[in-house]
Design brief:
Order of helices and strands: EHEEHEEEEHEEEH
Number of strands: 10
Distance between the termini: 31 Å
Radius of gyration: 18 Å
Structural class: alpha+beta
Shape: globular
Number of helices: 4
Length: about 190
């Protein structure tokens, strides 16, 4: 299958592609650059950036996934489990017929222009660096990361700001932001 490469100037072009890509569950891969924010104040690496190559799935039914895991652990049929998710900080964009898209916005500020791709990660390769490109080893940052809670029943779900996605591969199309080359160089040097 031939791949189509599309250079984009704005995350709104990526948003349009995701909207037209539909609501079917599918694999995606991406290159992202995100400022590391959830780090202790004592961290000496102010402004550190994480560049990642990520793979995962979009349009996964979270509630059904939790229900399957709960049913398996309790030895019950899936039909006997009803999982009702708790309150979230986001709301999904939807199709005209009301189906959820893998794009979310903050419920408190839905019109602020910030869109997030919600995906279920399967793998991730990460490198850290300062804004000037100087590499930082993950082992140097580990003491400053906050511990993350993990559930045996709930799958990991990540919502990443579209403006932090430098490349998105889905359905035979490769969407690339103008600064993809810098992100790929950071990955190659990490």
């Amino acid at each position: 299958m031939d791949k189509t490469i599309v250079r984009i100037e704005s995350e709104l072009e990526m948003l349009g592609f995701i909207k037209t890509n539909g609501t079917q569950c599918r694999f995606v891969s991406m290159v992202t650059e995100t400022p590391v924010k959830n780090i202790k104040a004592a961290c000496p690496f102010k402004g550190v950036i994480k560049t990642s190559r990520k793979r995962g799935m979009i349009n996964v039914n979270f509630s059904a996934s939790v229900g399957r895991k709960l049913a398996a652990s309790l030895g019950l049929p899936e039909k006997d489990i009803e999982y009702i998710p708790g309150e979230t900080w986001y709301q999904h964009l939807t199709t005209v017929d009301g189906k959820s898209l893998p794009v979310v916005v903050n419920k408190k500020t839905p019109d602020n222009g910030e869109y997030y791709l919600q995906y279920f990660p399967t793998s991730s390769e990460n490198v850290y660096h300062m804004p000037n490109g100087e590499p930082v080893q993950e082992s140097q940052l580990e003491p400053y990361f906050y511990a993350k809670a993990k559930s045996d029943f709930k799958p990991t779900v990540i919502s990443i700001k579209l403006s932090n996605i430098k490349e998105l591969r889905a359905s035979g199309v490769i969407m690339q932001a103008e600064d993809i080359d810098e992100a790929k160089a950071a990955l190659a040097n990490g």
